[in-house]
Amino acid sequence: MAEILSASDYRGQSVVTLNKGSRDGVFVKQVVVADGNNPAVAGGNIFGQVISVTPLNSQVMLITDLQHAIPVRNLRTNKRALASGTGKPDLLELKSIVATSDVRDGDIFVSSGLDGLFPADFPVAEVLPNGVNYVPGDPFANIKAKPLVNFENTREVLLLWRTNVQPAAVNQPESATTPEPQSSGAEA
What sequence ranges are listed for the domain Rod shape-determining protein MreC beta-barrel core (predicted)? Predict the structure, then answer.
């Protein structure tokens, strides 16, 4: 658990400073979650990721930052998208959704886990009322969503640590694993 010490929002850059740093094991690209603002969605919701660390503090880029994007999937349909920051604390854009896709107001999007950084199935965004717009001739839908974190009221966040996963053993043909006979050193 970490406390938010300060926040800055300048020209679409949304960053908070935490009271935990490298001496606490915090590292760059670490995922940060917080309680959400939707009572229908329980648990930690994606808040952002660590972008810099000092021994005593760390800086976290919020998911609403103009430079932030996270791969997500629709909880109802499993269709994938990219949740991109807009620089506004209450708005995300869902991109790369084909215009023929089934997306509805109120749909919940969760992290897909496909980037190898954000773990799968953490809530990210909810499609706004009248947030789905189709433009004739545009192959992609324009979708507006609200983050499932209330950034204004969040005072504490949780830093996630991943456990190291060992790759599965690869089955090799028997000839590849059979040791060659050793010579005894004596010549016949």
Answer: 10-161
Cα distance between residue 119 and residue 160, in whole Å: 9
Nearest to 103 by CA among 113, 93, 111, 112: 93
Residue 43 pLDDT: 64
In a domain, 92, yes or no: yes
Q: Is residue 103 part of a domain?
A: yes
In this prediction, residue 170 carries a pLDDT of 37
| Overall domain count for the chain | 1
Residue pair 138/100 in contact by the 8 Å Cβ criterion: no
How many residues are given for the chain?
A: 188
Q: Is the pLDDT of residue 157 over 90?
A: yes
**pLDDT for residue 111 is more than 60:** yes
Phi, psi at 161, each rounded to 5°: -115, 135
Q: pLDDT tens-digit profile of 26-63?
A: 999 999 999 876 555 556 899 999 999 999 999 999 99
